[in-house]
Amino acid sequence: MRRKIHIILSILVLSGFFVVAARAGDTSLSTQNVATDDLEQQIKNKQDAIKQLESQIGNYTRSIAEKQKESASLKNQLSLLDAQIAKTELDLQLVTAQIVQLELEIKILSGDISTKNNNISRQQNLLAGLVRALHQEDKRDYLYILLSEPSFSQFFNQIFYLGELNNQLDQSVKSIENARDNVQEQHDITARKQELLKSLQVSLEQKHATLDDQKKAREVLLRDTKSSEAKFRILLAQLRGEYARTDQEILDLNRKLRDKLLSHGDVNEQGVLVLSWPITVTKGISTYFRDSSYPFRYLFEHPGIDLPTKVGTPVAAAAPGVIAWVRTTRFYGNNIMIAHRENVNTIYAHLSNFNVKEGDYVKRGDIIGYSGGAPGTQGAGLSTGPHVHFEVRANGLPVDPMRYLTK
User: Fold this and answer.
1) CB neighbours (10 Å) of residue 38?
2) Which domains does the chain have, with CATH numbers?
3) Can you give the pTM of this predicted structure?
4) pLDDT at position 87 over 70
5) Hey, which bits of 172-320 come out as E strands?
């Protein structure tokens, strides 16, 4: 009889523990719910703000598209840059709001994971108590229990209570397994949100750089035209003429340099032409080939990539070749072109100094000049900040340098 009472008390006590634990969990969950409700309200506010920003950005996008249809003039170009600047400022606000929203969502997930881990720990402790109680009962076999009980009814009651204890154990194990699965799922969701957060933070930095370029482009345009519509038209004619002449000039030079190129064995290396980066890229790529964010795109497409770097950085030949020209022009400023095999040419623009002369043969990695591009400095050309403009021409036409550069 004492054994039966002990089993009953074990189940009642353990059941009581589960009730207390559940209530403690409910209290903790209630506190967590209050905090979660506050965070969810903040998320809703951010979502509303994001919708408003997206609507405003849409209006500016349509306005920019309309302005791009108008004829090129200083007034229109300045108006276009103002619209692009305003849109980019809204883009910055949008990305910032998206970052805050993600951070709030991650905070909710972290709090939920913490609460569930605490509940799992409590259930594990209770499970240990159940295992100990069941283990004590398992020390005696059913034959001993049958012989020690005064009647069959008490024996069957004893068996029933042991079965209840086993059921309680099974339910506890399943509950813990389900809770662990749920926590793992939330960990996975959190990891994905954190990756997205990193991506948005990179995007934020890029938006800041774009905004800076657009503002400097406006300053450069006003400085170079002295706010004169007539001078703007002269500048535009110079830039477009230089852009158009370059294609044919390259083809003519390549024909003249063909024999000189063939006389160098390493220029005629076998396989697909691969180009090395002209500088060590530490600040990424600020403007890509035909980049939609290029501030002067309305006037002409960006024909290469821009690599931000401090003035005076050594610039290296991307592959073996012959120096086709060393010159200064309105768009490129101080620039060098190298003729390579397969009718491929590379241009290095906005340089502060030259280190080669026309007709020189250079090997891959040879220093050909030094970076410049600071607005207003000698040889900067049409530039909004210190960088190297790197361009690749195939059969005289601009192509994406990323197709040739090493990974």
Assistant:
1) 12
2) 2-225 (1.20.1260), 241-403 (2.70.70.10)
3) 0.73
4) yes
5) 305-308, 314-316
- pLDDT per residue over 281-290, tens digit each? 988 899 999 9
Give the number of residues written for the chain.
407
Chain-centroid distance, C-alpha 48: 24
In the prediction, which pLDDT does 162 show? 57
Q: Kindly state the average pLDDT of the residues 353-367.
A: 96
**Residue type present at position 281:** V
3-state DSSP call for residue 287? strand
CB 215, CB 82: distance < 8 Å: no
**pLDDT computed for residue 169 by the predictor:** 66
Residue 313 neighbours by CB under 8 Å, 6+ apart: 279, 370, 371, 388
207, with CB counted inside 10 A (0-12, 13-18, 19+), is: buried
The residue with tokens 């009962």 is 137
At 175, the amino acid letter reads S
Would you call 23 exposed, middle or buried from its count of C-beta atoms within 10 A (0-12, 13-18, 19+)? exposed
Counting Cα atoms < 13 Å in the Cβ hemisphere of 388 gives 30
